Amino acid sequence: MFKEQLQELQEEREALYAFSKEEIHHWSTSVSMKSNNDDETATLQETIEKLQREAAYTNSGNDVSINNEKGSDNVSSLVIPEEDDSAFTHLTTSGSKATMVDVGDKAVTRRTAKARTKVWFPPEVISAFASYGGTSSEVIGPKGPIFETARLAGIMGAKRTSDLIPLCHPLPLDRVNVEISLENNCAVIECECRVTHKTGVEMEALAGASIAALTIYDMVKAVSHNVRIEETRLVSKSGGKRDVEE
């Protein structure tokens, strides 16, 4: 019934506009070709989008294998490689790009870390300490109490670690403690950090100890530039995947 009505409408239109047989044939052929071209265009567009997705994944630095075997409906599938626990976690599998570690699935635990660094002083700096006065736990310089200033700088540095080291997670630190003592001609700095979170605080501890050491250098460089910052290292960490103990 519908086809008959459609045929009648088409005949009325042709009679109204007095279309020739050649024009009718031409338009009918054009409509048929357009329909076929639309199908081909849709198939081509799907192929382009599929290739774009594969290219984007490859450019992200991951290895991609294409599965397009017979019986798979000619659909390419991406095989994503499993993570390698032995690899550097801040690099993609291919090693070509840096990436921030996703800690969303990790458990929240109490985590601690302690780092230590040493600042070696030449004899002229030790002599200057004696002239200004002080003890093994504090020395005074032209700018004021050297170790106390460095201790506060170390605490501030630990809290700002994620601003200095690009792939570190910002952490709500529970505690930062910096201790500095003078042993012979070296200032020994220890920075301990604690957090209840999904990732560790060793970088915060190392950053705190390092900033404290740099502050000491700044406080005494007027006396000598032969001061050396040396042996910055992680002493201990706990609460994460691996514990470290000196």
List keywords for this structure.
alpha+beta; two-stranded antiparallel ribbon; single chain; 246 residues
Explain how this protein is built:
It is a single chain. By secondary structure, the chain is of the alpha+beta class. The chain has six helices and eight strands. The strands form three sheets. A four-stranded antiparallel β-sheet has the order 6-7-3-8, with helices on one face. It has a two-stranded antiparallel sheet with strand order 1-2. Strands 4-5 form a two-stranded antiparallel ribbon. A hairpin with a 2-residue loop joins strand 4 and strand 5. Helix 4 runs antiparallel to helix 6. The longest helix has 39 residues, at 21-59. The radius of gyration is 36 Å and the shape is rod-shaped. The model is unreliable at 62-84 (pLDDT under 50).
Q: Report strand %.
A: 15-25%
Mean pLDDT: 77
Question: Which structural class best describes the helix and strand composition?
Answer: alpha+beta
According to DSSP, the number of beta strands is: 8
In short:
By secondary structure, the chain is of the alpha+beta class. It has six helices and eight strands; from the N terminus they run ααβββαββααββαβ. Strand 6 (175-183) and strand 7 form a beta hairpin.
Task: Give the SSE layout.
Layout: H1 2-17, H2 21-59, E1 66-67, E2 77-78, E3 109-120, H3 123-132, E4 140-141, E5 144-145, H4 146-159, H5 161-164, E6 175-183, E7 186-197, H6 202-220, E8 228-238
Antiparallel strand pairs: 1-2, 3-7, 3-8, 4-5, 6-7
